[in-house]
# Entry
Amino acid sequence: MANESSITTNTVETTDLAQTLRTPEFFALAFGTMVGVGWLVVIDDWLTRGGPGGGILGFLLGGVALIPVAYVYAKFVRLIPDAASELAYATSVFPPVIGYFSAWLMTLAYLIVCPWEAVAVGRIVSYLLPGFQTAGLYSVGGSPVYLPSLLLGIALTILIVFLNYRGIRISSRFQNITTFGLLALFASFTILGLTKLQPQNFHPFFSQKALSYIPGSLVSIILVLQIVPYFLTGFESVPKCCEEAQKGFRPEGFVKAIFLGLAVGVAFYVVIITVVSGLAPWQSLIREKFATAVAFQRAFHSDLIVRLILFAALLALLKVFNANFIAASRLIFGLGRRRMIPASLGKVHSSFQTPHLAVLFCGVLTLCGPFLGSSILVPITEVGSACSALGWTVTCLAYAKNTKKRQSEISGARKEIVIAVVGSIVAIIFLLLKLVWFIPGSFRQWEYVALAGWLVLGLVLRRRTV
# Structure
């Protein structure tokens, strides 16, 4: 194992962040950041991309491929326990500008989930209350924005900001309740679903036809793999709160939370795609608003189980919103603490022991989401995938370089370097799947616009502190 004292990072100011988190809270953060309501709201997109085979294999292969990346984060959080995470890791070996933009883009990967959830809550409530979507105000990208959904998204954002402003104790309790509540409900309805599976419903196993140079099965898997980074981003959120671990916390708890979060997240997605595809002919679900609920409704002819699923989805929405908000605010806090963005964002509230100004900053940006409506859902998925992949790439390369510099001091250094290089290759492949224009499903106009807008904001804030 690496000599933990051999890896150093830039010195940062001491803070008074509350130290209360334990392993269950770190798991709730990792899994909570990862699994939201995509399994209800956009599972039709997953099936359209890959069919049952592409969806199951895409998430399974993606999860396995991310094991080296998870390993690197598990090593780094022990060696450099810093809330700035990607920033701290990169600046230990690379110029500060690389660390800055790595952390800035990773912040987007988390923060971009928050407006996603603020918009998705209106869609879920409208399924329960068909008359909810009234009083249309305007349209964005062909999707109308309704006043009730707008107000609900704003109210939910204010709630999350309030919880995180007041303290990690209250937000972590909220996270535990929603995370473990979701897992209990998920286990209940998926076990029921497994009793009703019909093998013929999985046919055809893949959704895409062969291209001149790629088999249809491979095209299906690739199209799902492109969004896997977005839906599996979360295991690396653990280091963002490492400074808030309770006193005496054993570092092995970080490692358990990272790997357990990744494993449970992958299993969650594989199981839900399997169950939904087996309950009803999957091709009949791809035009449905909430394919998961529709599949269970058709199989059980019960409104009760549908309401159970929708309640589980609301818990999932609350937990993923809260967890991603925590992770994003800690990265902003880390950037502010190093004065790479306005230093006020690195301050800690004297009473609540929270990075309160970073929380408010993330809250203001999140409030933009409800005003853009549901047209932002799929583009957000695409941009988040690329940002996560880039953050993983820089982190793995930083670990490889840092280990190589101290090769003579570290037992098993060659193995560590190989794992980090493999992790960086995996992350680069995920990145190229979104950026190379001739690959099916790569970035389109609006994804580039969103990414460019965030980079411009990063440049503006960075220049102010130079």
